[in-house]
Amino acid sequence: MTGPLNGMVDGHAMAARDLALSKVPEVTLVFWIIKVAATTLGETGGDTVTMTLDWGYLAGTALFLAVLMALVAAQIAAKRFHLFLYWATIVASTTFGTTMADFADRSLGIGYTDGTTLLFVCLMAVLALWYWSEGTISVNTVSTPKVEAFYWAAITFSQTLGTALGDWAADTGGLGYEDGALIFAAGIAVIAGLYFWTRVSPVLLFWAAFILTRPLGATVGDFLDKPVANGGLALSRPLASAAIAAFILVCLLVLPQRAGRHPAAAGAG
After folding, report:
1. CA atoms of 43 and 45, how far apart (whole Å)
2. Which DSSP letter does residue 232 get?
3. What is the pLDDT of residue 261?
4. What's the confidence (pLDDT) of residue 259?
5. 3-class secondary structure per residue, 72-89
6. Cβ atoms < 10 Å from Cβ of 182
7. pLDDT value at 230 more than 80
8. Which of 11, 77, 83, 221 is 20 to 30 A from residue 236's alpha carbon, by CA?
9. Which one-letter DSSP state was computed for residue 57?
10. CA 58 to CA 74: how far, in whole Å?
């Protein structure tokens, strides 16, 4: 059937798709500012529970996994974009990533190098399964519970990978926390340059930037709370976490954010 009725049906279908896509925020500079702050909070917050409160890595991982699963379920069940729910889920994923990576690297004795490699393989496997299932890994396609499950799985593995990568760079790589943060910041700057001045797939650049913002936040968080002898500032973990959380809250309340299409083309990837 063609004509006005068909156009009306197509219009309703497009409107429904746009509503589903509106559950994730538009990727702007504000998005990346809050993302880096959230990853830093994940590092200091995770260390607060596992080290300062002495819960240990296993208990801390179990706690944050439960919180993450509850928030992901709420995010998937939501009918539209909820600013605070989305960012709470991001913070939960990065905090779980911190404790999970520390548990694997330190409690299980996997080590930074092997842990980073294992997590990279897991992330690539999730992205490969997502691509195999949907034909793309673009965040523009996050419009069904199945794709959103892939989305949050990829985010969680990228957060965990970022923690391990940050620790590897600072410790095994010998960069220290300050130099490690500078290296990852430079990497993000390169990705931004590729986005603005080349035709490299925006989808691939998005995921590369998403991964690299995690070790940037991890190294900044470690720089804030690790002992001076280890290259840190030895700040109070709870105090640093509270300050970063307050900064994120101000950003959410003051800086404009809206649901919308990501800069990546939906069919690329």
Report:
1. 6
2. S
3. 60
4. 73
5. HHHHHHCCCCCHHHHHHH
6. 14
7. no
8. 83
9. H
10. 24
Closest CA to 116 of 154, 183, 169, 42: 169
| Range 36-48 burial, b when 16+ CB lie within 10 A, else e | bbbbbbbbbbbbb
Identify residue 269 by its one-letter amino acid code: G
26-75 tens-digit pLDDT: 888 999 999 999 988 988 899 899 988 889 989 999 999 999 999 999 99
CA–CA dist 24, 75 (Å, integer): 10
Look-up of token digits 């940050």: 166
Is 0.85 topped by the overall pTM? Answer: no
Report d(CA 247, CA 97) in Å as an integer: 21
Tell me the angle at which helices 237-254 and 83-102 cross, rounded to the nearest 10 degrees: 150
Strand partners, 25: 259
Token readout for 9 is 């049906």
Q: With H, G, I as helix, E, B as strand and everything else as coil, classify residue 18.
A: helix
Among 130, 127, 143, residue whose Cα is nearest residue 23 = 143
The span from the CA of 152 to the CA of 150, in Å, is 6
Given CA atoms 128, 130, 136, 139 in this order, what sign does their dihedral have?
negative
Distances in Å between the Cα of 118 and the Cα atoms of 105, 112, 114, 212, 255 are: 11, 10, 6, 17, 37
- The reported pLDDT for the residue numbered 124 is 94
176's CB contacts (< 8 A; 6+ apart) are 170, 231
Residue found by looking up tokens 């409160």 in the block: 53
